[in-house]
């Protein structure tokens, strides 16, 4: 299964429920990408994009940046844990940090034009992402040419290298 996204809600009010989270977790576990997005916004035209990104360890998010000036990205870990990497323009890791649910260090806010990636460190990780919209697939992301695409052996090898380096580059407490 290579589904990227579950259906957006249609009701005027969205409540996060255990049932919705479990639906996303089940989908992420069988997805080829080992993650699934659950949109909260009702439309891609919404001025603020909100979604749950539900991830399993081994899911690889190709380093990317958001070029549009309104595309500030905030990620808050609601359940589980992620490692976040920040890169320079050539792909060198500038910084990495762990964000874990229930801890103060559970949130990262990334300005437009910053190369970044993240990966789940614990099963059934749930991240709330908020980004300026509207969503436009043709302009939302620029993927790093210096990093492999999200599937296949090169992606798994690259993710393993990033995880090994994370302890060296992680910000001091």
Overview of the structural elements:
With 173 residues, the chain is α+β, with helices and mostly antiparallel strands. 17% of the residues lie in helices and 33% in strands. The chain contains two helices and ten strands; from the N terminus they run αββββββββββα. The strands form three sheets. It has a five-stranded antiparallel beta sheet with strand order 1-2-9-4-7. It is globular. 25% of the residues are buried. The model has no long low-confidence stretch (mean pLDDT 93).
Uncertain parts: none
The helix fraction, in percent, is: 10-25%
User: How widely separated are the two ends?
Assistant: 39 Å
Question: What is the overall silhouette?
Answer: globular
- Counting DSSP E segments of at least 2 residues, the number of strands comes to 10
The number of helical segments is 2
Q: Strand order within the widest sheet?
A: 1-2-9-4-7
The residue-averaged pLDDT reads 93
Question: Strand share of the residues?
Answer: 25-35%
The biggest sheet, with number of strands, parallel, antiparallel or mixed sense and barrel status, is: 5 strands, antiparallel
Structural class: alpha+beta
Q: What is the radius of gyration computed over CA atoms, rounded to a whole number of angstroms?
A: 15 Å
Q: Topology as H/E string?
A: HEEEEEEEEEEH
């Amino acid at each position: 299964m290579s589904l990227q996204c579950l259906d957006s809600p249609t009701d005027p009010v969205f409540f996060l429920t255990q049932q919705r989270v479990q639906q996303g977790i089940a989908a992420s576990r069988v997805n080829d990408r080992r993650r699934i997005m659950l949109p909260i916004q009702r439309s891609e035209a919404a001025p603020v994009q909100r979604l749950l990104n539900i991830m399993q360890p081994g899911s690889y998010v190709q380093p990317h940046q958001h070029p549009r000036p309104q595309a500030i990205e905030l990620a808050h870990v609601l359940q589980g844990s992620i490692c976040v990497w920040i890169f320079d323009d050539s792909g060198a890791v500038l910084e990495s940090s762990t964000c874990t649910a229930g801890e103060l260090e559970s949130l990262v806010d990334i300005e437009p034009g910053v190369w970044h990636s993240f990966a789940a460190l614990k099963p059934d990780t749930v991240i709330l992402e908020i980004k300026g919209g509207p969503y436009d697939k043709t302009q939302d992301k620029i993927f790093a040419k210096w990093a492999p695409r999200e599937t296949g052996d090169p992606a798994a090898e690259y993710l393993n290298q990033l995880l090994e380096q994370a302890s060296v580059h992680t910000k001091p407490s």
